[in-house]
Specification:
This protein has about 230 residues and is an alpha+beta fold. The protein contains 6 helices and 13 strands.
Amino acid sequence: MNVKQCYKLLFFILLIPTLSSCFEIIEEINMRNNGTGDVVLTINLSQSKTKVASVMLLDSVQGYKVPSKQKIQQELAEAVAYLKKSEGISNVKSTSDFTNYIATISFTFKEVSNINNITRNILARQKIKATNTSSYSYNKATKTFARRYQAVTTAKSEFNKLKNQDKAVFNGAMYTSIYRFESPVTNVTNPASNLSKTKKAVMLKSSITNLINGKINVSNQIQLSK
């Protein structure tokens, strides 16, 4: 998630070693001018739902234990419980769709800085190493939203240690960030950003492998109209 770590909406990430490469991790942040906002984290495996459904009937695949629906729901519940105890976080909810294989976690924050390190901490609880460090800030006076991102240098080397069949899981897998605002955006610093027609939303898409290998930096500074 640091609202993104292979932004993991993590829990379904337990399934990823058993999947084909069609999945998407989506991070949405809806900012209000007063500095409060909402986050929705999603992992969408719907493009692989037929294979996932078959995999879920097995005990293990390629040496990986396949988690049960109950196990996935337990992981989601534990993440929700952790978030509810986090400073500045409220209205925590989760959903799990075992027909289309889509899971979400959503919550409200008092300040966007409240979400810094949350995903990293959740990943650590799952014994999953972070692939990057991220931090978020919002200056109410200047109406400037910033996301600072840095890939962990060991992520690429750890990825390269994987078997080719495991690496192939990430071919075509995508990460998408969407930031929405109440005021129009006047400037963005990341050239890969796409601005909506309303100029109130910024989207950035990247392959998961480019993030792991450090080939793209999703840092961004977004200036809103004053």
